[in-house]
């Protein structure tokens, strides 16, 4: 997994601010300042502060809080290294009183007591330790959020693939049943049906394995499916497919519309010329309006729906959250599905 640059950026900002503050303080210092002053004040003391920061950041927090959950050991270690850092700074000041316990101006010389220096050293040691805690927890929180987002994205993708894998065998099972019926009847339409199924399966296997496809291809797929279904009806199937608007290069999730059409063929009446199945597609560059209206087969009036529609509604929730409206009307005589998608 690609590593985030967030920790590096946050550390760079933090130490950049610290360095700029030190530069500002050095410019405000009065009196002459020797190289030894700079070395001890910013070099030696700086190394101790940086060491405190990263000992806490790299070792104490991951080991005793993140890994072992031994909070009392962490707080004990925290105060021990705070005392150790303060002690080292104080020893350094005692050994170099002219540079660390003396503050010179153009007019006079000020002296700090060892106790005052120690209190000051403890304050800054605590500042760097607490800063490392804050930065560590900020980075860990953002890292945890990023991992959760990645896991959620992967979960959604796996669920979509699972729903799609359910849809394809469902469609294939129904189509093979239809072709079997034609073959059993020794119909001359069997070869055409196999060819249509081949074209449809080519689309399902090769062209629909992308997150989105052109709406025009999805419409071609629906047209081929309708033609395949018409072949199996000896008395004719009456379907009115109406296309309006600009059906061009708009993108849509593949195999999103087929379940509605398949549902109409499976549970509806398609052989009544007075009440044909009406499929209407209206599209522009922003909105897709899709509807299917079919007369219900009274022998199966309670069977409308099934695996296909359950899956497609779940896919809509995953792929188009807050960007779709699905209205299903199940009356005594007709079944209507109306779908609007913000594409």
Largest sheet, if any?
6 strands, mixed
Helical content stands at 55-70%
Number of helices: 9
Q: Give a count of the beta strands, DSSP E runs of length 2 or more.
A: 10
**What is the 3D form?**
rod-shaped
Mean pLDDT: 83
What does this structure look like?
It is built from nine helices and ten strands. α6 (190-207) packs antiparallel against α7 (215-231). The radius of gyration is 37 Å and the shape is rod-shaped. It has 343 residues and is of the alpha+beta class. The strands form three sheets. Strands 4, 6, 7, 8, 9 and 10 form a six-stranded mixed β-sheet that branches. It has a two-stranded antiparallel ribbon with strand order 1-2. The chain has a two-stranded antiparallel ribbon with strand order 3-5. A hairpin with a 3-residue loop joins β7 and β8 (287-296). The chain is 62% helix and 15% strand. The protein has helices at 6-28, 35-67, 71-95, 97-100, 114-184, 190-207, 215-231, 258-267, 307-319; strands at residues 102-104, 109-111, 213-214, 239-245, 251-252, 268-269, 277-283, 287-296, 324-330, 334-342. The mean pLDDT is 83.
